Amino acid sequence: MVKNGGSKTSRHLGWAWASPGLVFLTLFAAIPVLSMLFMSVLTAGRFGGVTTPINFNNFARATDPVFVQVIINSLLIAGATAFLSLLIGFPTALFISRLSRKWQVIMIVAIILPYWTNFLVRTYAWLVLLNNEGIINKFLRNIGLIDKPIEMLYTPAAVIVGMTYLYLPLMILPIYAALEKVDKNLTEAAFDLGSSAWKSLRTVSIPLAMPGILIGFIFVFVPSLGNFVVPELLGGGKTVMIGNLVRDQFLKARDWPFGATFALILALILIVLISIQSYVSKRVNINA
Amino acid sequence: MSENLLEIRNLSKNFGSVAALNNISLDIKTNEMFALLGPSGCGKTTLLRIIAGFEYPDSGQVLMNQSDLLAIPTRTRPVNLMFQSYALFPHMDVFSNISYGLTNTSLSKEDISNQTFEIIEKIGLQDHVKKKPNQLSGGQQQRVALARAIARKPKILLLDEPLSALDKKIRQEMQIELKRIQHEFGITFIIVTHDQDEAISLANRIAVFDKGEIKQISTPQELYENPTNEFVANFIGDGNLLKATSTTTGFKHPALGEITVSHNYESGKQISFLIRPENISLVKVLDGSGEIVDSVFAGYRKNINIKLKNNEIVRVYADKSASLEIGDQVNLSFRPQDIRVF
């Protein structure tokens, strides 16, 4: 009896503990996703908004090659952004994780600080750097490497560079946290057993930091995929991404259901990615 | 007499203003089980890490077979370390953990596999090959750590507090196992420990460390019977270190009286002397030099604490059948040859 009562109490307590989280998830995850789902199967109103009847035409429309191409482009650009961030972020995180406590804190603050600056300002900075009369082109011309400016602005590459710059801290921080958690004795053991620095990284540090690496990848990939400001400012509107589609459908075409369809596609991609991450981190954590 | 495998010459290492090692010299012979014993922060771990290649000394030499060991990079040193925490790779199974060091050699895949299975068999891990470290018990984890560290057939195996994480029963099992493996593989073991029982039961010779210096290097028996200084006398075994004043023929203790024993001190100096609990016999009297204040039954004997007239506490091991009770007045007697004066 006492035992039963006890377990019942703890079950009630469990719900009590979880309730703030559940409320949060319901308000900010479940309801928005469900309303998107609902909206995507309705018909567009004449001046925006949604009306009946319920139909599934939008999913058929989304498979139009034009839109499929936009989705593929978005995935490629977001993927390249995440990959470039990983290429810069991993060594940076590794470097920071090997510093003394004091310097780790200083470096982390230095990485977070620019992130707190308005992101439009940071994006405009790239306009100044990348345009034909910008610092980079001027410098290259002055040292005689080129005589005509390189078209850097308004290309997919500019979008990738700009978004990498925006989201790099989101790559560095989770990787740093994961590397910081890897027992220093394990890397020492790898050296002791004859590994080079590269092999110890490849066989010990990277596998154990994999959950953090995937988190960083998702943290950069997801906002990049949905971004519509950077493609417009640095891509000059020539590079259309899903984010631009969503915004245009809602604000310009006033076709809310179709916009919701693309938003739903974004959410689905996110769910797939997070499932992969949680699978990998479960595997690593089970062993740790 | 076997040759010196490792010679440590005038080794010093400072961390900031703290001297972790202060001009250490010692020799370790081939196939020896050598223990570095001392309280935490005494420098023994620093020495271990220098031999392993994780630290570099400020000055001094480490020679292996007369050639400079410090010139060899960590990864190619014929030395391996068994970590106190075992440091098993959590994402690899037992086989991959043990074969890890061999994958850094020029051996073929087949040779690696054969050699790994040979070690797995010798260490008795056949049933656990595919398990991950977290699926093993503490004792099994230690066996994997041991197997991994000897897989590369090092000349020296360093063991950092090898038994500290195990419970008492597995400890005793592992002690025997370590000795067997040391014998079977013919590897010199250097054990770092703060636990004198561990050092005494495992090692052929022990270096006792304190504050970055070596206090004495000797066999366990010699350390116990003939400590050369107060620190060792106190650190090794149960002992009674009592204060007395030297006389021309021995010394005078305020409660035990005059005792005749040879020493090198001038008369009238403050000295301390050591007498082990098993070397004291007690006689019950009406008014003795001390009173029994504590008596604990310890199986095959009684551990008795006596408060002397001058308030010093003396520990004595008495026969379990001795009719000595708390509150009894006793006289203490011991032979002069069992006394060590410092």
In short:
The complex is a heterodimer of chains A (288) and B (342). Chain A has helices at 2-40, 57-62, 65-97, 101-112, 119-130, 135-142, 156-181, 184-192, 197-226, 229-233, 242-252, 256-287, and strands at residues 43-44, 50-51.
The assigned structural class of chain B equals alpha+beta
Number of helices of chain A: 12
What do we call the CATH homologous superfamily of the largest domain in chain A?
MetI-like
Report the average pLDDT across residues of chain B. Answer: 91
Please give the most extensive interface between any two protein chains, plus how many residues each contributes.
A-B, 21 and 24 residues
Spell out the blueprint of helices and strands.
The complex is a heterodimer of chains A (288) and B (342).
Chain A: H1 2-40, E1 43-44, E2 50-51, H2 57-62, H3 65-97, H4 101-112, H5 119-130, H6 135-142, H7 156-181, H8 184-192, H9 197-226, H10 229-233, H11 242-252, H12 256-287
Helix pairs in contact in A: 1-12, 3-7, 3-9, 5-7, 7-9, 8-9, 9-12, 11-12
Chain B: E1 4-15, E2 18-29, E3 33-37, H1 44-52, E4 59-64, E5 67-68, E6 79-82, H2 94-99, H3 109-122, H4 138-150, E7 156-160, H5 168-185, E8 188-193, H6 196-202, E9 205-210, E10 213-218, H7 220-225, H8 230-235, E11 240-246, E12 250-253, E13 257-260, E14 270-275, E15 281-284, E16 290-297, E17 301-308, E18 313-319, E19 329-333, E20 340-341
Parallel strand pairs in B: 3-8, 3-9, 6-7, 7-8
Antiparallel strand pairs in B: 1-2, 1-4, 4-5, 9-10, 11-12, 11-14, 12-13, 14-20, 15-19, 16-17, 16-19, 17-18
